[in-house]
Write a structure and sequence with these properties.
73% of the residues lie in helices and 0% in strands. The chain has 158 residues and is mainly α. It folds into two domains: 2-79, no CATH class; 83-153, no CATH class.
Length: 158
């Protein structure tokens, strides 16, 4: 092996200008390779960061979707009316004149007499904002005895 190297050295005589040009060419090639490798590494880092951001956004979206699904399932399980409540709701929105007259007889609030010892809010109909605020305050202070008395006086209820 050394023989060949010696032979090559003897065959090729380098001058200063060709040697200088070769050294600069190699340095330039090394510089370009180093720049290219850094450029490719930056692109790879950018790609990985972008992928991580995309995955985190997708995961957050899935979590939001799961929370929304769980919320609606909770509503369906806890706030779906029973069959008797469904009938009541459908009767409220049903336009039957006989049913309206029947409701009038059951809900004749003018015939209810309130004793003088009653200390709760005295409401007049149609309700005003002041009357509603009094009613809300009564509920806040748990003075709802008026509702129990009203239910006793409604005909057909016990």
């Amino acid at each position: 092996m050394q023989c060949k190297i010696i032979f090559l050295k003897k065959k090729h005589v380098y001058t200063d200008s060709t040697h200088h040009f070769t050294v600069h060419s190699i340095r330039a090639a090394v510089l370009i390779q180093r720049w290219y490798r850094r450029y490719v590494a930056r692109l790879e880092i950018r790609r990985r960061c972008t992928w991580n951001i995309f995955q985190s956004i997708e995961y957050a979206g899935q979590q939001d979707q799961i929370k929304l699904y769980n919320f609606f399932v909770f509503l369906m399980q806890h706030f779906t009316p029973a069959s008797s409540e469904r009938n009541l709701i459908s009767h409220i929105f049903h336009d039957d004149p006989r049913h309206g007259a029947q409701l009038e007889t059951f809900h004749c609030y003018e015939s209810i007499e309130v004793s003088n010892s009653y200390t709760g809010p005295r409401l007049t109909f149609p309700l005003t904002f002041c009357g509603v605020s009094k009613l809300v305050e009564t509920f806040k202070h748990r003075q709802v005895g008026a509702l129990a008395q009203t239910v006793k006086h409604i005909p057909g209820r016990k």
